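Reminder: ligand-aware prediction takes two inputs, not one.
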Amino acid sequence: MQTKIIRIDSEHIDIEKMQEAAALICEGELVAFPTETVYGLGADALRPEASVKIYEAKGRPSDNPLIVHISKIEDLKRIAKEVPEQAKKLADAFWPGPLTMVVWKNECVPYTTTGGMETVAVRMPNHPVALSLISESGCLIAAPSANTSGKPSPTEASHVALDMDGRIPMILDGGAVGIGIESTIVDLTEEKPMILRPGYITKQMLEEVLGEEVVIDPGILATDTTDPSQAGQKPKAPGMRYKHYAPKADLVLVEGDTNKVVAEINRLVSVARAEGKSVGVIATDETKAMYQADVVFSIGARDDEDAIAQHLYKILRDFDEQEVDAIYSESFATPRIGQAIMNRLLKAAGYQVLYV
Ligand code: TXA
Ligand code: MG
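Here is what comes back for the chain with magnesium ion:
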């Protein structure tokens, strides 16, 4: 299959091109498109054969449910068994935006879309191309991140092309995304609202709007810590259980006071190079010049956490192209979205962390 890549200017959307993409969705075909978080791989959410194609193209296990993307808040009613009061509040506050809500599904939603679950994840993305694709097609669009299963989520159309070329008919290129990490997922089917995946919308932001406590899935805390007493808990979102986002090279994080981190990473680099390895470092603008490695990438300024989130996946992909054998990274437990950044980075590192 030939993959057509169509450039769309987000500020002046070419409706004819969008109609061509929408027609593919209506035929049950796949179209990759930009959202504000990462690129998605879309198909008609209410048509079972269409979501099956998504699993095939990604090489994704079919028990891992998809997020259904909508273009207006009222569409939540089309797929939810009932719309909880909390969902209304959160939609008013954060939609369109990087928040996914899990609610009980109704009979319209096929089990192929929900990976066999009785619940459905729903999000209204804040990107003009995504919203236009959904509304022009008249469909609700099931879309996981548009990467091959196990690779970092795509933040540019070229990443999608690398993973999906020849596997899907069309990629809409809307340029680099704004946020760079996937949406926050909040589950509204539990006794208390529960964060299943941390993201740009934080626990505090959710609590402020809901006026009640929001808990974090103990399963993700268990995997994000080295505390053995937390071990054995499984994350509730099936996708959070898989090893994810792993670069080809072995990645190790080094955490602690900056001067000590730089010294330790330089020591590790020289040990690895003495063994004949090619070594990469993930640094910040402030520390980039301090490292003596084969490849040093800056993720952004240390106090600019939006930039760190935005560049994370691109850097992991760039390292795959550089073919380094080992990567050492500084740690980025920044104040607001640091939990979301570290959740992704720890996974990429297979939880290898050195404390100095
Ligand atoms: O930002 C995003 O959310 C992007 C863009 C494209 O919208 N999408 C995305 O989709 O990250 P995906 O498929 O890569 O991740 C969806 C996550 C998976 O971990 C999946 O297991 C979880 O959401 N999920 C989906 N439906 C669920 C449900 N009903 N209950 C629990 N977890 C669910
Ligand atoms: Mg994904």
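The first helix runs from residue 15 to 26. The two ends are 51 Å apart (CA to CA). We will return to this case in the review session.
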